[in-house]
Amino acid sequence: MEAGAAVSLAENWTSSGEEVNATFGPFLPNEAIDNGASSWTEFNLTVPVDLELESIDVILDITHTSRGDLDIILESPMGYQSWLAEEHGDSSNDYSNWMFNTVHHWGESSMGNWTLKVRDTDNNNAAGTLNLSLIHISEPTRLGMISYAVFCL
Fold it and tell me: For the residues of 102-121, what is the DSSP string, one character each?
């Protein structure tokens, strides 16, 4: 590596621009989650911003006696689904401000109606509650990463 060339490149570096953020929410539904594998509890929202998605962070606070009993899906306006959590052997309590991440919607538009679906697969336990949710989406640009926290459920 030529040190002089590296220094010259650094001296003439052009910034990729500032990160832009926008937040709507948070939403605090305190909504009961249906108990039993045959039904989904759905939380709908509309995103008014048109971004070409790269990744989505979904932050959830769910009260439940066995988080491994929960299936969680994020469905885009185009109908594509990201499975954020599936039934598994974790019998610990709650998803306490838990961050899920997906790149499954890469290239989709953020604009439109989104649905968060939660299902309690064990109808023998007490039902859970969705207490809080926040979704953060990001879009790649030629000038760097522009991020928007655009909606909350």
Answer: E-TTTT-B--EEEEEEEEES
Contacts of residue 7, defined as CB under 8 A and 6 or more positions apart, other chains included, come to: none
C-alpha separations of 111 from 51, 56, 114, 118 in Å: 7, 13, 9, 22
- For 67, the 3-state DSSP assignment is helix
Residue 44 near residue 115 (C-beta atoms within 8 A):
yes
Q: What percent of the chain has pLDDT over 70?
A: 78
Residue 141 to residue 113: CA distance in whole angstroms: 23
- Which token pair is 105? 């919607």
Closest listed residue to residue 58, CA positions, set 78, 44, 43, 74: 74
Contact 46, 113 (CB under 8 A): yes
- How many other C-beta atoms can be found within 10 angstroms of the C-beta atom of residue 56? 24
CB-based contact 34:5 (threshold 8 Å): no
pTM for the predicted model, two decimal places: 0.76
Mean pLDDT, rounded, for 30-54: 82
Write down the pLDDT at residue 140: 63
